[in-house]
Amino acid sequence: xxxxxxxxxxxxxxxxxxxxxxxxxxxxxxxxxxxxxxxxxxxxxxxxxxxxxxxxxxxxxxxxxxxxxxxxxxxxxxxxxxxxxxxxxxxxxxxxxxxxxxxxxxxxxxxxxxxxxxxxxxxxxxxxxxxxxxxxxxxxxxxxxxxxxxxxxxxxxxxxxxxxxxxxxxxxxxxxxxxxxxxxxxxxxxxxxxxxxxxxxxxxxxxxxxxxxxxxxxxxxxxxxxxx
Length: 228
Known about the structure:
With 228 residues, the chain is α/β, with parallel strands linked by helices. Helices cover 32% and strands 31% of the residues. The protein has helices at 16-26, 44-60, 73-76, 79-86, 98-105, 109-119, 129-132, 164-174; strands at residues 2-6, 31-35, 64-67, 90-93, 123-127, 135-139, 144-146, 151-157, 180-184, 188-193, 196-201, 204-209, 212-217, 221-223. Strands 3-2-4-5-1-10-11-14 form an 8-stranded mixed sheet. Strands 7-6-8-9-12-13 form a 6-stranded mixed sheet. The longest helix has 17 residues, at 44-60. The radius of gyration is 16 Å and the shape is globular. The mean pLDDT is 94.
């Protein structure tokens, strides 16, 4: 399985080297779908903003790209939209509200289509909320909720270099558990291929377990399944 977790900065010029690197790891001509579902409660203007920004960004990189506006339960179960996702080989979820994003996708045709892309050797990338739902647990209010568990036994903390209060709250929620925390800085991706994780980008990734923390930066690789 190939998937990538981005801390922050989706579709910005500084992310171009990261996304080019992800295209290289995809190993085929990228056919991208940008999905703004995390922003589904923010109104039509913001949904269109994220859709247009994603399409513009990936066109600059030479990709075949379209926005697929899955934004709520109805559109997540729209057969035609799910078919468009399944035809892609690079799925990108931009940010927003992680709990809303997870609940919108759970059990949906859209998520089944994402699983089809992964099963066919495609790559799923998510930024911020789109990264958080790939963990086994998602930080919510007031407690931890469920995620899709693509990265087992994990909580994903995006914006790790930006919001120390967010990190402190996460630490309190996770304290005493065996959950592994992956703190991902902005303009940085944690890329997984099978059992290997690789840091791509200008920031770093901090892995926190009961036994301590380690920080990894551009080009570092380490095992995906941390033994506790």
